[in-house]
Amino acid sequence: MALEQQETFISHLVELRDRLLRAVIAVVVVTVCLIPWAGDIYDVLALPLMNALPDGTRMIATGVVTPFFVPIKVTLMVGFGVALPVVLYQAWAFVAPGLYEHEKKLMLPLVVASTLLFLAGVAFCYFLVFGKVFKFIAEFAPKSITPAPDIEQYLSFVMTMFLAFGVTFEVPVAVVVLTRFGVVSLEKLREARPYVIVGAFVIAAVVTPPDVMSQILLAVPMWLLYELGLVVAALLGRPSAAPASDYRPPTDAEMERELDKAEEDSRRL
Questions:
Q1: Rounded to whole angstroms, how far apart are CA atoms 37 and 54?
Q2: Domains identified in the chain, total number
């Protein structure tokens, strides 16, 4: 029995390796295909800031290899976004066999919704927030200085903002998960609304630049998305108990096929 468990564990590790390798290959292939346009991709990313700078002003690169590596990092980020469906499919294909049927029906929409909401948060930040924030900073800056942002610092700022808004837009998914799995009741989450509003403004003050505009543009969507999560959780209803017939232990034939697959994968190594 111990030997069979060990071989099953090894087969899971081999499958995990294969899934990760396929996901990495997908990201690398897309990134390599986009590298000839790395400079143009960075120009698109820098467009909100360039529109807010005075005419004739350019960004600077203080490092020797920075003009090369920064566009490559941006291209890698875009490549990951383009290959995200493949990455998510590999993750889903790995965990799906161990889930109950009712869990599969819930998890797949959650994965899709999480992806779309994260991308929506990034798009909201790029198309709306950046323009407002950079315009405010440019108007507030003293007239006696000439702004010359560094491209590496700009990339770090952009990644922080993208992550903050992307995670913020995941609030409805978090609310649905907490209620559906019985961690917190819907009534408790409704009672916590005042604390959530205060917490949203506190988080916005910490992760955004020190200006009121960007804090409001992060805190208000966070609160509204929390309300959206409450509405969706109410529509989905309370979690139901998993039927006893959901789980079916594998047969001897299925176990044999798994062991044969593990041995074949080990020989390929």
A1: 26
A2: 1
